[in-house]
Each structure stands twice: as C-alpha cells, then as structure tokens.
Design a protein that fits this description.
- The structure is a single chain.
- This protein is an all-alpha fold.
- Helix content is 75%, strand content 2%.
- The chain has 17 helices and two strands.
- The protein has helices spanning 2-7, 12-30, 37-42, 46-57, 64-80, 85-90, 92-109, 113-118, 120-126, 133-158, 160-186, 216-221, 225-239, 241-251, 255-287, 289-309, 319-326, and strands spanning 200-203, 206-209.
- It has a two-stranded antiparallel sheet with strand order 1-2.
- A hairpin with a 2-residue loop joins β1 (200-203) and β2 (206-209).
- The longest helix is centred in the last third of the chain and has 33 residues, at 255-287.
- The chain is elongated, with a radius of gyration of 24 Å.
Amino acid sequence: WSQAQNYCNTNWRVSTGLCIIFPALMAVWMFFMPRSPIFLISKGKTDEARKSLQFLRGQNANIERELEQIQEDVNQSQNIGNIGPMKLFTTKEYAKPIVISMVLMFLQQLSGVLFIYSYLALIFESSGSSIDICVSTILVGAVQIVASIIQTLIVEKFGRKPLLIISDFFVCLSMVAVGIFFKMYENCPDCQPTRLASSTTSLNGTLIEAPFNVSEQTVSDIGWVPLVGLMVFVFFFMIGLGPLAWLLNVELMPMEARAFASSFCACFNWSLSFLVVLFIPSIGEALNPSTVYFVFGAIAAAGTVFCIFMLPETKGKTEEEIRKMLK
C-alpha cells in the first residue's frame, strides 16, 4: 500500500474538488430537466406530459402515438393496482423479469468490478509489473470514461442483448488472462523472495509441489498483461454489464410492479457489492489471487450463456410488448 501511495501521491483536497465538479453540474442541470411523461400522465397532467415528451424527443418529433401508448400503459397499470411482494414472486408475469434482473445484478457484481476498482493500485503492485502503478490506474480510468461515452452512442443501435453478450464474453477473457498471469507469478520462485518458495504451496499445513515453475524473465516479459487485461475488462464492462443491468432493471418490470421490484433488485445489487469487497480479499489470500480471477472468469462465462439463451431483447419495444413477451 505504501508503494502505491508513493507512486500516486496526490493531494486529497485536489482530487476531491475535481470529483465535485460533475455532480455539481448535474445538480444544476436537473433544475432544467422536465418531469417524466409517465409520472405526469399518472397524475392527470397530460398537457405537461406532452411538453415533457416533446422536449425529450426533439421539437420536430411526432410524439402523439407514443403519448397515447404511455396513456394506455398507465391506465392498465392503474387498473391492476399495486403489486405486493407475495404476488411479485408467485406470478410468472412479475417473477420472470425480477429473476432476470437479479441474475444480471449478480453477474455485474460477481464480475469482480467493485473488487477491482477498490484495490486497483494494490492489484498492479502485487503483480510485480514494471509499469508505473499510478500510470496504470490512470489509464484504466481513462478507458472507463471512453467506454461510457461509446456506450451511450451504441446502445440504441445494437440493442441490450448483443452488448451484454459481448460484454460478459470479454469480461470472461480478461479475467482468465489476468488469472493466468497471476498463476505464473505465483509459480515464479524468484519473483516472491519474501514468500514460501513458489515450488511448493501450503494447503491445510501440507506442502504440495507446484505443477510448474516460471522464470522471472518470463513473468517480466508478460508484465503488461494485468494492465491490458484490466483495461479490456473495464472497457467491456462499461459498454454492457455496468449500465445495462440497471437499464433492464427498469425496462423489464411492468409499471405496477416497478417501484418495489426495481428497489428490491437495487438492494440485492448493493448487498452483493458489500459482500464482494468484504470477503474477496480474504478469499484471495487463502486461495491465491489467480483463483479469484478464474472464479470471476467462470461466472462471466456462465453469464454469457445466460444472456444468449435467457435474456430477452427490449430495444424498441413498448411496455405492453415486453409484458406479453415475458408472460
């Protein structure tokens, strides 16, 4: 940790001040944003809803058909009434979207994203790479910004499902690549002089011969793998798993169930994130870092299969079309 601090010695007041800028701009901008057309129609304010939708779609857009569809959806949801937790999990129409959303939240957090963001500098430090830790961390952050911009430009063009499949697939590849590097590093006797010789591994007090040894030169030659692997991870996470899990958490839910179901899935997501950050470092120490990355990769591989066969596409579909698709 001290080494990472020396490489990235930044005044916390400066970094905090810079981080305040964008939330402050967003707070000011929200004063000029109209209310949701759905909310306004649910309150009987049709004229305000029309103005809001026109603002969101552009002054030259024809919004009357969409406005009528929103009115129909709101009337249908109001006729059904609020959905309680029991009906939410026992009725297929509601249980299917909430299960899909929970799986996406699980895949998002068990991709290892919060673990990687929380311990990024330490991951680079523990890899023994000769690449500067601070530069590596900045590059990963820059990739995150670029990927976020690209995602907003392509999500309506390519759809949710293809982006999630691609995202999970490359998250899997990047985690496996980083896992292979750490496996080689763990089996390099000259790379870890302060540890138990890498030719043996301690397991419940018993010393077991490692299956292979790797030279320090070999590890040094592939020292770029953690940086490139994590840059690939962040890029593809940000074009799929990161934002789209939250988007589908809203799009999949019928309006009458959306408030409770979306909130429940959000609580599930952040509970998982807490558990990942709490336990993964200890698991990594007990099982070796490479095992943790291989587990993340395996979960992403399973997620890719799930997205291919189980995930519906919601791009361009109305709420009624999504409702029928999930019944």
